[in-house]
Amino acid sequence: MLALSAAIGLIAGLRSLTAPAAVCWAAHMGSLHLGGSRLSFLGSAAAVWISSALAVVELVLDKQPWIAARTKAGPLIDRLIMGGISGAALSVSASQSLVIGAVGGAAGAVVGTFGGYETRRRIVARFKIPDIRVAVVEDAIAIGGALLIVSRLS
């Protein structure tokens, strides 16, 4: 489960709100079992709709030139928190340690944040591709990756 916690954290490093939105949907649909835990609220209808709306807004805002780089302190802390919560939820669902899942998720978020940033920057520079095109592919990887990870929970 540590590997899945780190993987969902990596997704949070790419798109901070995609990972928790996927986790909320999985909990809401019954694939992620959080009942009785401190994270059970993630399966509520409110959490699903709020996290989904915020994830969509993030996908749009990520393309704006005035948005701070994900490697700056504020966005990085956000990714660590979102990766940690998402990783913790996966771990708790498997009756494993919340703390270990949170640490795995946060560690994955660091890898996703810096690895995603550097990969995107290098692709744009090397192949002279407009950043927005690479960003849209990164969106698809984040969404597809999140769905693949939470589909492994049942």
Outline:
Helices cover 74% and strands 0% of the residues. It has 154 residues and is mostly helical. Helix 1 runs antiparallel to helix 4.
Task: Provide the fold topology.
Blueprint: H1 2-14, H2 18-29, H3 45-61, H4 73-93, H5 98-127, H6 131-151
Helix pairs in contact: 1-4, 1-5, 1-6, 2-3, 2-6, 4-5, 5-6
Properties at a glance:
154 residues, 6 helices, mainly alpha
Description:
With 154 residues, this protein is mostly helical. The chain has one domain (2-151). 74% of the residues lie in helices and 0% in strands. It has helices spanning 2-14, 18-29, 45-61, 73-93, 98-127, 131-151. Helix 1 (2-14) runs antiparallel to helix 6 (131-151) and helix 5 packs antiparallel against helix 6. The radius of gyration is 15 Å and the shape is globular. The chain starts with a helix and ends with a helix.
- Report low-confidence residues grouped into runs of 5 or more: none
Beta-strand portion reads: under 5%
* Structural class label: mainly alpha
**Could you tell me how far the N terminus lies from the C terminus, measured between alpha carbons in angstroms?**
13 Å
Helix content: over 70%
Query: How many DSSP helices?
Result: 6
Oligomer: single chain
- Order of SSEs, N→C? HHHHHH
Mean pLDDT: 96
The biggest beta sheet is recorded as:
none
Q: What's the alpha carbon Rg, rounded to whole Å?
A: 15 Å
Morphology call: globular
Return the domain count. Answer: 1
Number of strands: 0
